[in-house]
Each structure stands twice: as structure tokens, then as C-alpha cells.
Write a structure and sequence with these properties.
Layout (H helix, E strand, L loop, with lengths): L10 H11 L10 H23 L5 H19 L17 E2 L2 E2 H16 L5 H7 L5 H22 L2 H14 L15 H10 L7 H22 L2 H13 L5 H13 L6 H19 L3 H13 L11 H9 L3 H30 L12 H8 L3 H12 L4 H18 L7 H13 L2 H20 L1 H23 L7 H20 L5 H11 L1 H6 L4 H13 L9 H10 L3 H11 L1 H12 L12 H23 L8 H15 L3 H27 L1
Antiparallel strand pairs: 1-2
Amino acid sequence: MSSDNMPELTPEQLAAIEREYDPEMAFRQTGKGLAMFITAVLVAMSIYHFYAAGFGLVRELLHRGIHLSFVLGLVFLLFSWRKSGANKLAPPAWYRFGGVTVIDIILSVLAVGASLYLPLLPPEVVSERVGNPSQGDIFMGTALLVLVLEAARRSVGPTLPIIAMIFIAFAIFGPYAPGALKHGGTSWLGLINHLYMTNQGIYGVAIGVMAQYVFLFILFGVLATRIGLGQLFIDIAMVIAGRYSGGPAKVAIFSSAFMGTISGSSIANTVTTGALTIPAMKKVGYPAHFAGAVEATSSTGGQITPPILGAAAFIMVEYLEIPLRDVLAAALFPAMLHYFGIFTMVHLEAKKLGLRGLKAEELPKMGIVLKQHWLSIIPLGILVYLIMSGRTPDFAAVYGIIACVVVGVLNPVNRLTITDLWNTLAAGAKNTLAVGAAAACVGIIVGVVTLTGVGFRLGYVVVQTATDIGQNISTIYPFSYFTVGQWALFVSLILIAFSCIIMGAGIPTTATYIILVAVAAPALAVLQVQPLVSHFFVFYYGVLADITPPVALAAYAAAGIAGSNPFKTGNTAFRLGIAKALVPFVFVYSPSLLLVADGFTWQAFFVTLVGAILGIGSMGTAFAGYFIAPLTKPERWWIALTSLLFIAPGLATMGVGLVLLLPIILLQIKRRTALTAA
């Protein structure tokens, strides 16, 4: 691209925007000496995880404890008490050391001790104390519980720890809960025993997956970006889509889809690619809020794009006990439909506004791009090959990391020096701290769910409510096409979808998914929805929170780059991401779209895929207000309602939808002919 299309904001300003809208990146400045110490610890964290996954044999509880000690110890050093002071080095005072208060240093040391206290005990001693913890166990467990809540508040915001505290209160005051949620309650000793002494709480699946898989994949993503893979993705996207009408917006879609393969954060993806694409979109004529919305919606698509899925893929592997390649296969076509929906609306918006593509001199040359960066694709190829060949995720990640280092050393364009490697290892570990603290906090929530059975209780409440609504609808409309059971499923999906969006507001993707699986998925299980399908349903709606006002963090970060109204940008982003809201309903009613779901047939898959494409394309046309000519308001409503027939699986409904759209198509041809003649 030419210099005219380069970012309008400096790297420092972009970093400030990311810190403002992404609490996970709001690191405070420290003194030089302490900064060197923290960097050394971060590098040690990366080396330890690489060693443990590739060559070491560390028992499960100890591995999780070491990971948690790194995370909590560093969180208290890198995240300050107040967000407003996150990036300001306060004047020297007796209670500060290198910009960090003595209290934070004490909390850091206590967090390390509390994290390692139980894992360092002999396994047989731990087994004996489960159910009968000592006073020391209760003290350390209480300390760790409080420290985890505070670490999560500092690193990901107050929403998640508040939810955790509500669950803790529910566990203790269960006898006073209303209706079906009422239970016998538990004592503080019983709560700490379950959350601290067993693998059902803080040391549970959530922190285990972070330690075993997620850390390595985040490190891989940072290394891959450093050796030039991110730039390769952006340049290839420019070559593929830049020349067409409204080219920069289409570049944003492709580049964000590519970046999603190595990025686990929608906000980081938004800032990385948006620094280039948003100014370019504004230059060719897109409104600022639309430019920001395109980038935000495309970047959240990275959370549902294989092979990382915002780290949720590895949780699915643990919960569903299926190979990672099956999870990735299931995620493929729903992700493609999400990007198809954005592309449709972006293209129609460009046609409606009469926007141009980029000129030849503004585009990179494919030959030069491949010559400079082709080596950087090798690590990703190795990673994907190993996963698809059935290797474990950590095995694939280890060899992907090794490949990144080798390519970085050999590649003359983005050569990786010892200093670069040191800094990249530190940066990779730093990027895992917030999600690690969130995972520990989620462990508290999941622990309460397993202790009280609240997930099944909530599932019962949701299904019963939906059934009552279905019965009322059937009574009011006795000739309704749907049965009470079908209405119950549909209403349950609506209720769960709204709950997922609310629960996901301001919480990292992986944490959101784990909570929703524990709380919302049981309701779908009662309705006999396949586990794989229910997991993907709650996951999709949890991710949708990143572009759903009033807490659309990815959209607000994009608005900061675009200089647009954040709320308007968020509303537009939600409109552009409507496919992400429709697709989960598609694969609930036709699981064949997920490829590996039970009952898969190629016929059902193709019918569902074609129907989804027609439905999403029609809905995008209605939102854009343009097909081959402008649409009137009644025509837009007609198309929007008709598009729902395509979403419903079946050739009959698809045929009805096409018949209903035929008059609109004929009117559009007539209107287009008149406009051309004029």
C-alpha cells in the first residue's frame, strides 16, 4: 500500500487504545530494575511451559499449581489496583518499589505461596486431606480464593469476579434460594474443601487447559506474528480483495479471518489489522462508524476460526472427549458463513455508495510478498498438519514453536535475534496472564456448579419456562404448525442466546464459554440437543458479546481507531455480524452443518449450507437496503422475513422462500434498468 493508506495513529496511540478497551493489556509501567526482573520471570514461564509440554513429565496438580503461581504472582506486579493508574509510574515513595506498592509485592509472594502450597505436598497427603482439610489448608485455600478474585478483577475487569462471588453466596445460602434453585447449602469449610482441595475448582479443567494447551498456542501466535506471518496475511488479503469495489473493507474481512488462525483475542486482532484497514476504508469513502464496525466484526470472527477458536477449542476437547481435528472440522463452515455474511453487507454497502477499490500502485505485488514472507507460513502448516494427523494439541504447538524459531533464525527479512527471541518469549507469557487469572476465577464458578448442581437446576427452570410459553402459544394459536415441544426448543434457544450474550459482556472468550457450558448447556441437554451442538451454540453467542452493545469491547476499540461514535459503531457491528446470531440456530436444527455431528449426511449438509447461504445473503441484503438497486423499506422487511425460511432446513421451505423473493428480484431488475437508462 502507499503511504497515504498507512495508519493515521502512531503505535503508541494504538497501544493506548488497546489498553483502554482491553483490560487484559492494561499493564502498568515499572522501574527499570523491576522490569528486568519481571521480564526474566516471564521468559522463565515460557521456557517452563515449553519444557513441560515437550520434554518434561510433571504431574497434573503440580503443573497446574506452577502455572497458577506464575500467573497470579505476575498479575499483582503488572496490573495495578486501579485502572486509571495502570500506565502511570507514581513518584517514588517509601511504600513503592520500582513503581509497584509494597502491598502488591506482598500479595504477589502470597499468591505464589498459596498456589504452590497444595501441589508441593506429596500426592498421598493431599488424598488423605480431601474431605478433612487442616487449618493450614483452610487458610491457604481462603487466601488463594481471595487472591484469584482480586487478580481477575485487575486483569479482566469486575464482571467475572462479581459473578464468582454471586455463585459463592449461592453455595453458602442455598437454603434461602427461590424455587427450584433451593438447595441444602454448604459451610465455608466444605466450600474451600471443594474449590481448593479437589480438581473440581480452582485447580480444575479451566486452569488445566490453560497450562497444557492455551499458553503454548498463545506463545505460538506471538512468535508467528513476529516472524512475519501476520504481515503475510494482511498483504495476501490486499492482493486478493483490494482491487474490488470498497476494497479496504474486504481486505479487513480476509486479513482478520487469516489473523484469527493465530490470534485468540478479538480486541488485539482489531487493533493489529484495524490500524491499516480502518484508515484505508475511510479514505475510499466508508463512514467512520461503518469502517470501525467492519473491522470489529471481522476480528471477532477470529474467535470462531480454526485452529484456535479463541482457545475454546481445547476446552471442547476436554469436555467432549473428542479429537481436536473434529472440533476444528465442526467449526469450519459456521466460521465461513460468518465471514460470508459480513462480505455480503460490505459489498452491497460499497455498491450503494459507489465506492472504488484500491489502485494498482496502492497494492502490494504477490511475487514480492511471497518472496519476503513465504517462509513464515511453514510453522502454521506444520501446526495444522500435526493436528489433522491426530497428534495432541500440545505436541503440535511445541513443534510449531520450534518451527517459528528455526524460520525466524533463517529468514533474512524478519530475522529473529537472541534479543528478539527473549522479548518475544516475554511478550507471549505476558499475553496469557489475564486469561490465566480468568480461568482460575472460572474454576470457582464451575466448582460451585458441580457442588450445588445449579447447572441442572437452571436447565430445568429454562426448559420449564420455555414449555409453559410453548403451551400458551399453542393455546392461542391452536392451528400452529409447531408442536409444544418444538416451541419449547425454540423459546429455550432464544432465552439461552440472550443469557449467553449478557454473560459474555466484558469477559474473555474462553472464560465465557466455560461458564456457559456449565450453566446453559444442561438446558439444551434436557431438550436432547447433541453435546457438540450445544457447546457450539453457547460458544457462538458468548463470542457475540464482543460486538453487542452496551459492552461491545471490540467495536469500541475499533471506534477509537476510526474516531467514530462507539455506540453507533457497536450497533453497526452487531448488524454486520448477524450471521453469527443466525448460524447457531441453523446447526441446532440441522447438525450436519458441523460435519462431525451424529447423523451427518452429505445431502443434509449441502441442503443446509445452501439454505444458510441464501438466508444470510438475503438478510444481509435487507440490512444493506440494496441489491442491484436501492430497496424500499417494505421490500427490506419482506426480504428479512423471507430469509428466515432459508435458515429453516429443508428443500420445501427453501423453495417457498425463492418464490416469495421472485417479485422483489423482478422489481429490482426493472428499477436497475430504469436507473441505467437515466
